[in-house]
C-alpha cells in the first residue's frame, strides 16, 4: 500500500466528502486524524471504521479557524500517531444568501473556516514535512470558486481563494519535497446538496455532461491518487465534476 505507515489529517472528516477521503486514505494504508468541530459521534464512528481495517485513528475536535485549537490538535496527533505526512484541507462552513442580505458575521465565518483554516493547518504541519523532505497538501475547493453560484458569494470567494493559496504554496514548497494540489468537486451527493429541491437537482444534472451528481467516493479517489502517487504533481487543479467544468 502506497501510504502504509503514513499519517494523514483530514479536516472536517466526520461526514460527507471528508469522511469518504479519510476512509479511502486508510484503505491505502494511512493512519488518520479525523477532525471535527461539533459532530463527535460521527467522528468516533469514522475512527471505529478505520481501526477495524487495522489502521490507527484518532478523533480530534478543533475549530480550524482558531489557530490555538489547531496547534493543540496537531500536537496531540503528533504525540499519538507521529508527524503528519498528508494534510487534506476540507473543512468549510457554508452560509449562503443574496449578498445584500448576507450578514457580515456569516461572511467572516465562511472565510475563516475555509481560508484561515487551511492556512492554520498548513502552517502547523509544514515544519515537520520540510524536515523529512516529504509531504502532500491537498486543498478541497469547489466549482463555485471557479464558476460562481447565486447566493454563494462568501463560499465562492473562500473556495477561489484556496486556488491562489494552492499555487503560491506549491511554488514555495516544491524544493522541500512537498507537493501541493487542489481538487474541485462539482455537485456532490452530500448534506449540502440534499437541501436542494428535486426540480433544482434535475436542472443541475442537465448542466453536467455525464448527467449525474458525483459521489463523495469519487472525490476521495482523486485525493488518494494525489496523496499516494502524485510524486511529481504540484500546483495543479483537478476537477471531479462529471465534465461540469468543460
Structure description:
This protein has helices at residues 16-27, 40-52, 67-81, 104-132, 144-147, 153-173, 191-194, 198-207, 216-229, and strands spanning 7-10, 31-36, 57-61, 86-89, 135-140, 178-185, 237-240. It has 246 residues and is α/β, with parallel strands linked by helices. A 7-stranded parallel β-sheet has the order 3-2-1-4-5-6-7, sandwiched between helices. Helix 4 (104-132) packs parallel to helix 6 (153-173). The protein is globular and about 45 Å long. It starts with 6 loop residues before the first strand and ends in a 6-residue tail after the last strand.
Summed over residues and divided by their number, the pLDDT gives a mean of 94
Radius of gyration: 17 Å
Give the end-to-end Cα distance, rounded to a whole number of Å. 33 Å
- Sheet with the most strands? 7 strands, parallel
Order of helices and strands: EHEHEHEHEHHEHHHE
What overall form do the CA principal axes indicate?
A: globular
The total of helices stands at 9
Strand ordering within the main sheet:
3-2-1-4-5-6-7
Identify low-pLDDT runs.
none
Percent of residues in helices: 40-55%
How large is the share of residues in beta strands?
Answer: 15-25%
Number of strands: 7
- Class from helix and strand fractions: alpha/beta
